[in-house]
């Protein structure tokens, strides 16, 4: 299991405003994303990210890289954590472009995400 931060997601009310704000603040490059609410894929010097709309006031989601999602989910459960079975990946086209994403909680209830990047 890798464990490095590989992806982040920002939930905002208006993706266009977020593009202007974060692009102006950090110089990030935004590309059309795969969400129906007008989201963007974000390219940075470090991990890639995304921004989605209709989620005002949300805290950033941090995703840790895993090589095998099923094995990682089994390990989360073995350690007393919980897996939210809602697949955030967004369908086959999105999985091929961005990979798989799931939210988990540790054994104390703190949320984190797991990300299995798409095959190279």
Give a description of the structure.
The protein is α+β, with helices and mostly antiparallel strands and 120 residues long. 24% of the residues lie in helices and 32% in strands. The chain is built from three helices and eight strands; from the N terminus they run βαββββαβαββ. It has helices at residues 15-26, 69-78, 92-98, and strands at 5-11, 29-32, 40-43, 48-52, 61-65, 82-83, 100-105, 111-116. The protein has an eight-stranded mixed beta sheet, covered by helices on one side. β3 and β4 form a beta hairpin. 26% of the residues are buried.
**What is the share of helical residues?**
10-25%
Strand content: 25-35%
- Major sheet strand order: 2-3-4-1-5-8-7-6
Low-confidence stretches: none
| Rg over alpha carbons | 14 Å
Largest sheet: 8 strands, mixed
- Structural class category: alpha+beta
Shape: globular
DSSP E strands, number: 8
Number of helices: 3
Distance between the termini: 17 Å
What average pLDDT do the residues reach?
89
Order of helices and strands: EHEEEEHEHEE
């Amino acid at each position: 299991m890798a464990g490095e931060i590989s992806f982040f997601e920002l939930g905002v009310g208006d993706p266009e405003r977020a593009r202007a704000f974060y692009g102006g603040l950090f110089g990030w490059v935004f590309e059309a994303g795969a969400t129906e609410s007008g989201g963007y894929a974000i390219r940075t010097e470090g991990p890639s990210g995304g921004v989605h709309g209709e989620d005002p006031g949300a805290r950033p989601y941090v995703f840790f890289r895993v090589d095998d999602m099923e094995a990682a989910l089994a390990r989360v459960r073995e350690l007393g954590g919980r897996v939210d079975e809602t697949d955030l990946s967004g369908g086959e086209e999105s999985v091929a472009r961005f990979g798989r994403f799931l939210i988990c909680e540790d054994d104390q209830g703190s949320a984190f995400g797991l990300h299995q990047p798409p095959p190279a």
